Amino acid sequence: MQLYFNPASPYVRKVRVTAHELGLSDRIELITLSLTPVSPHDELRSRNPLGKIPALITDDGAVLYDSPVVCEYLDALAGGHRIFPVPGGARWTALRRQALADGIMDAAVLIRYEQAVRPQELRWQSWVDGQFLKIRTALDALEQEHLESAFDIGTISIACALGYLDLRFAGEGWRTRRPRLAAWLGAAGQRPSLAATAAPAA
Ligand code: BEZ
């Protein structure tokens, strides 16, 4: 399998952590690329019309995207229901947490593009503030959750979202009013899958 990859992408990290947890990392070749919404990548667009990562080329030559689909595919390849719980309450909790964490990533990546890619004179601070509000509200909700030690698609996604905040927005100090969430990430971060996939400091 081949995975279109950028080390900073939290969505790609979800896939890599999932593969690592499932023992599939060695079967995935990483194709490194650099892209932003204003510098699309032609080869990637020929595979994924949205031009987004992650995109996985399976051993059968099929193309799968985006991160929820690729992670569920890998889970099925490894026998099923190891990272995505069986139908029932635990599954809905994991999928909701994945949605919440992906929403944090979406807001954070949009802010990153606004601050690092958009020309200075076109930047819109109220819009950035609105994205930060989504992130803070989501983090406050996560602080109230009882994040079990079980590592499923929900908790993998949360760990990758928090890792991206540490990578790009360390100065925002998300841990300050969220000691339980910070302690949870401190413990989860010891897992080999998270340690092996951390983005190099920019
Ligand atoms: C980043 O550099 O922050 C980034 C790169 C790829 C996807 C998303 C974010």
Principal-axis shape: globular
Share of β-strand residues: 5-15%
Strand order of the largest sheet: 2-1-3-4
- Give the tally of β-strands: 4
The largest pleated sheet is described as:
4 strands, mixed
Query: How many independent structural domains?
Result: 2
What is the percent of helical residues?
Answer: 40-55%
Write up this protein.
With 202 residues, the protein is an alpha+beta fold. The chain has 2 domains: 2-77, Glutaredoxin; 89-192, Glutathione S-transferase Yfyf (Class Pi), Chain A, domain 2. Helices cover 53% and strands 6% of the residues. It has helices spanning 10-21, 42-47, 67-77, 89-116, 125-143, 153-168, 179-188, 192-197, and strands at residues 2-5, 29-32, 55-57, 63-64. Strands 2-1-3-4 form a 4-stranded mixed β-sheet. The mean pLDDT is 96. The site of benzoic acid has 6 residues, from helix 4.
Structure, briefly:
By secondary structure, this protein is an alpha+beta fold.
Descriptive keywords:
globular, binds benzoic acid, 4 strands, Glutathione S-transferase Yfyf (Class Pi), Chain A, domain 2, Glutaredoxin, 202 residues, alpha+beta, 4-stranded mixed sheet
Task: Compile the SSE list and pairings.
Layout (H helix, E strand, L loop, with lengths): L1 E4 L4 H12 L7 E4 L9 H6 L7 E3 L5 E2 L2 H11 L11 H28 L8 H19 L9 H16 L10 H10 L3 H6 L5
Parallel strand pairs: 1-2
Antiparallel strand pairs: 1-3, 3-4
Helix pairs in contact: 1-3, 1-6, 4-5, 4-6
This protein binds benzoic acid.
The site of benzoic acid has 6 residues, from α4.
